[in-house]
């Protein structure tokens, strides 16, 4: 099961809004996420009629990245998604914004904080024949690690128990990095950007460079403090190698 109430793993699932109460990972007393319309960042579902999942981001014409514990919902990528309805149920975009994920291409690891990632190839759109990266755009992956205090941005498809039309629709927020690798876990990065279940797999952008530095994977914030966790790309050689391999064989 994707939702882990004790570990606060930040994944969406196929349950009601109230079922996610213990997956809250808002940093501080208020949820400061705002609706966004970033075309490079998609909602991952287990089918074209799925009701919730994770977040994926394009890093080339065909390559995308997410979290490894999202593997079971990395079937379909929806871009340019509408807001949810008044009941909080997701609304699907038009067919030209929905792409299948190549299941044979997925390289992933679900190994906990600092070792949780997925790299995949997104197939051409069934209706247009075009690649997602060509139509929606993509981000570059940073070659160098950020440092403590850098401001990052997380955009994704998290739960929202305060505003139903925002539930599992795209939202964004910024926050500071509080730890970028440690002696015990060099590929873990902690931050205080607001997230909720469904944000798992969200790319973490360095606001100064607009490049991806990490993948959000686990909650950990509360109204009293704490931080959320991610996999730091520059600190994880195997993750870097998987990204490089996908990019090297990107469709020309």
Automatic annotation (TrEMBL):
<feature type="signal peptide">
    <location>
        <begin position="1"/>
        <end position="21"/>
    </location>
</feature>
<dbReference type="InterPro" id="IPR001254">
    <property type="entry name" value="Trypsin_dom"/>
</dbReference>
<feature type="domain" description="Peptidase S1">
    <location>
        <begin position="47"/>
        <end position="225"/>
    </location>
</feature>
<dbReference type="GO" id="GO:0004252">
    <property type="term" value="F:serine-type endopeptidase activity"/>
</dbReference>
<dbReference type="InterPro" id="IPR009003">
    <property type="entry name" value="Peptidase_S1_PA"/>
</dbReference>
<dbReference type="InterPro" id="IPR018114">
    <property type="entry name" value="TRYPSIN_HIS"/>
</dbReference>
<dbReference type="GO" id="GO:0006508">
    <property type="term" value="P:proteolysis"/>
</dbReference>
<dbReference type="Pfam" id="PF00089">
    <property type="entry name" value="Trypsin"/>
</dbReference>
<keyword id="KW-0732">Signal</keyword>
<protein>
    <recommendedName>
        <fullName>Peptidase S1 domain-containing protein</fullName>
    </recommendedName>
</protein>
<dbReference type="InterPro" id="IPR043504">
    <property type="entry name" value="Peptidase_S1_PA_chymotrypsin"/>
</dbReference>
């Amino acid at each position: 099961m994707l939702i882990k109430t004790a570990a606060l793993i930040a994944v969406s699932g196929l349950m009601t809004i109230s079922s996610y109460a213990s997956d809250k990972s808002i940093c501080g007393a208020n949820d400061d996420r705002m609706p966004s319309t970033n075309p490079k960042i998609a909602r991952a579902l287990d089918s074209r009629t799925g009701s919730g999942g994770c977040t994926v981001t394009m890093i080339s014409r065909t390559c995308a990245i997410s979290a490894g514990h999202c593997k079971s919902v990395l079937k379909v990528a929806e871009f340019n998604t509408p807001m949810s309805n008044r009941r909080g149920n997701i609304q699907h975009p038009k067919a030209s914004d929905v792409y299948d994920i190549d299941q044979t291409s997925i390289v992933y690891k679900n190994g906990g904080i600092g070792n949780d990632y997925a790299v995949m190839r997104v197939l051409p759109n069934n209706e247009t024949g075009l690649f997602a990266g060509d139509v929606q755009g993509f981000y570059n992956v940073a070659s160098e690690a950020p440092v403590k205090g850098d401001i990052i941005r997380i955009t994704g498809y998290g739960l929202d128990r305060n505003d139903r039309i925002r539930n599992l629709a795209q939202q964004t927020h910024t926050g500071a990095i509080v730890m970028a690798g440690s002696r015990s876990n060099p590929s873990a990065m902690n931050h205080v950007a607001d997230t909720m279940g469904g944000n798992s797999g969200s790319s973490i952008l360095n606001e100064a460079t607009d490049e991806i530095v990490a993948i959000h994977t686990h909650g950990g914030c509360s109204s009293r403090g704490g931080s959320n966790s991610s996999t730091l790309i520059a600190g994880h050689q195997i993750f870097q190698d998987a990204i490089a391999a996908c990019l090297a064989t990107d469709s020309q």
